[in-house]
Amino acid sequence: MRPNVSEQLDGIRRVLTQVIAPHVTDPYAASILNGLLGALGSLAAGWSNVAQFLRWDADGTATVLTTARPYLDEGLTAELDEVLDHVPEADCDVLVLEEHHRRLRALLERAVPAIVEQPTISSLLVGHLRARIERFPFSMVPPTRNPQTGGISADVAR
Amino acid sequence: MNDIAEPLGRWLTDELDQPVRIENLRRTSAGYSRENWLFDATFGTERLALIARRDPEGSVLQTDRGVEASVLQALERTDLPVPRLRWVDLTGEKLGRPTLVMDLARGTCDSFALNGDLPVATRLGLAHRIYGLLARIHLVDWHSLGLGEVLEDPGPAAALRSVDHWEFELRRVQLEPEPELAVVMAWLRANAPHSPSTVLVHGDFKPGNVLLEGDEVTVVLDWETVHLGDPHEDLGWVTNPLRAGEHRIPDVWEPEHLLTHWSEQTGLEVDDRAVHWWNVLANLKLAVIVLTGNHAFVDHRLDRYYQMPVTLYGLLLDMIGA
User: Fold this and answer.
1) ipTM attached to this prediction
2) Which residue among A105, A151, A154 places its CB closest to the CB of B177?
3) Chain A within 8 Å of B301 (Cβ-Cβ)?
């Protein structure tokens, strides 16, 4: 499967950078293109870890919820049972895995008020959330000094 | 892209009751929450340098142009340097979406002016002048300006009201569950301080929202998040550790210097615990702003795209001692 996904994303990014970007002179369009190139780079670097990350995060989330089960209301535990009865197979489509992951994260979001009242389980929860931040497959580029300040400025505008 | 040139010309022709020519119209790359269009309006022998701030189809913030216009008009009666508002279209009948037209103020915008190439003493003087303006905003007599009729006074519960507001915004825009933010909001609710007084809060005060001419501030910009609330809200925003590169000068203008200066200027006391609480709220707000942008991006209403703010989530967990 060549060019593979990484090669395709990398090639698209290179062409946009070397062929298209030099001809984009409008400040707004150039700024948008610059941001999209950064996003493409992040996607190229992280896409291959997505399925593994979703599986790991879903499993860790399920562990937290199962531990917190005695403190959760009946409706939430019933939904948890239903979700855990339908864990996707190892060879499932990534979209199926994504939906399973989303359902568990939704249950966790609802369970937070009960969990934070229990110090031991709260530590388990925070430990998982911190590990999740470390493993997250895409990175956010922090704001940096921008030489093209643009803005609402007569000096820059002219 | 310049499809607003003709309707803008018609609008200003109506306002000035004479033919107006629109020239040099261009959209700037600055401003993530509003479209900023710079242009010259020529009529008779006059030429005005103006800016039209139009609501975008999608934004990182949902705010009310009517409130912003009312506050700007009220503040023109004070000695605060604010943009001069020329014309207002709140319904969008002129340019398709609500728009404010203002004079283009003198000066340049530099978000990192405090950490630029100027000598430290010059930058420190600049910091005193910039954050002195924040103190002056907090000293505005909003009652006598009639702003109590435009803005709601949240009273001593300003902190909890702010959590309510940002939780509402989160629910409105989140594309997926956010347990990290649920943990942070639980902490915020359990530790919310009482507001000692109600002041005019700018909501996004920073060096990037003032214009500079030399080392003088000519105008304070971006009043779209202005509201009434706890003065510690702005103090928490400007001492947010995540934004240190914008607000601090290492060793000489650290948060303790800023807060002491503000207290001297306002005569109000600083509650360090409240400042920390509002630091946390500031980053919750930033996270929701990123998620708002991503919601609009997925809906094809915003051109900018941000990765999930997981780094911010880590900082928030640190800040609440989780």
Assistant:
1) 0.86
2) A105
3) no
